[in-house]
Amino acid sequence: MSPSATHTSMFYGTDRDYAAEAGGFLRDGLERGHRTLVMAPPSRTELLRSELGNDADEVTFVDDSIAYAPQWNAYRVLLDFAAAAPDVRSCVIAEQRFGRRTPAELVDYRRLESAINLVFAEHPVDLLCPYDTALPSDLLDIAVHSHGGMRRGGSVAANPGFQDPLAMLTDLSAVAVPPVGSTTLDCTQHSDVALVRRSVRARGAEIGLDADVVADVVLALTEVLTNALLHGSPPALVHLYDEDGMWVCHVQDGGGPPVDVLSGVVPPAQPADHGYGLWLARQLVSAVDVGSNPTGTHVRLHTRRP
């Protein structure tokens, strides 16, 4: 059995199209003795259960509201599923509802889809990502450019629109400048961290975030600030501002080693390992942007405003 992963998209316009194509993918996997996982909205899983009949009992279903909360959690669900039987190939369907996603979250989803091609390249996983043809063109664009194959009529063909994932991730790491009017806090000294944490906690409560959400933001910010103080150069600044329905905590330092576009996209083996802080941040807030330019290294933590 080849360990190499496959990452395939499919387009569907009707429930019947979806059930036949996605159901066929799962049935093919089951017939080959593969383990099967579906991360999808309830409306999709109902169609698959009906299509598969008794075979649906062999499939693990995870609601998208759990698998993609936040979006990068989908990686952990997939990794945990594959790790439960590492010698058996996994067939996985991954789809989420996009209706309430903000622009920052959709950019992060594009990042997630591109990174899959690198992160899971050597894993024995076949991943199918269905896309409803009624979705906006920018989301359908992800299907075209982020998948090496396209499934149609029960067969998979090479995708001529597939783009180099490393180049796409590099493009997505462009630095955004803090807007005029941002609140900027200086955290150049380790002793400043406690003051910044208190300021962020107070601001989060002021804009109406739940206490648990504020605690998650503060923890994510602490992890990113610690990285900036340990690995970056001064000054370390925190910019606070609103953007497209999100509250942004933007950490900027004077720069350090080149930023790895894959840093923190999968859980490190140990908390002390490189990338743990960014991985944890991705589990705590709605979206994370990481990039660098001549002004330094920038990490933006996006939290949905109430």
From TrEMBL:
Alphabetic keyword roster: Kinase, Serine/threonine-protein kinase, Transferase
Domain Histidine kinase/HSP90-like ATPase per the UniProt entry, residue ranges: 192-301
Stretches assigned to the MEDS domain: 6-147
GO terms of molecular function: protein serine/threonine kinase activity
Transit peptide among keywords: no
Protein name in UniProt: Sensor histidine kinase
Protein species of origin: Nocardioides ganghwensis
InterPro entries xref list: Anti-sigma-factor_SerPK, HATPase_C_sf, HATPase_dom, MEDS_domain, RsbA-like_anti_sig
Pfam families: HATPase_c_2, MEDS
